[in-house]
Design a protein that fits this description.
Blueprint (H helix, E strand, L loop, with lengths): L1 H30 L4 H24 L6 H31 L5 H28 L1
Length: 130
Amino acid sequence: MMKLSIFITFLICGFIAASINWTARLLLNDFFYINLIFSIAIAHILGMIVAFILFKKIVFNSKKNISASLLSFVFVNVLSLVIIYIMTILFIYIFSLFNSDVLFIKGASHGLAICITSISSFILHKKFTY
C-alpha cells in the first residue's frame, strides 16, 4: 500500500509539473509563435524545476545530496525530453490524419507524450534520483 500511495503522490505532483510544462508549451508555441522544438524544451525545463522540488520534498522526502539528486534528475529528464519530443511529433502526424485542428492536435499530442513517460520517470527517479 505504501508504494501505491507514493506512486499516486508522484502522479499528483507530476500532474502539477506536467500542467506547467504543457501550458508553457501552449503559450510559447501557439501564442508567442516560438518554434515547437524550442517551446517543448523550454516548457520541459520549467516543468523539471517544479517537479524536482515537489518530488524531493513531497514524494520521496529525500535526504540525498542535492547535487547527486540533481544530476540524476537532469539525466532522467533529458532522456524523457527526447522521448517526449519524438512521441509528440509522431502523435501530431497520426492525429493529423484524422483531424485538422492544429491547436488541438499539438496540445493532445504533447499531453499524451507527457502522460506516457510518467511511468518510466517514476521508476527511474525512485531508483536513481532520490
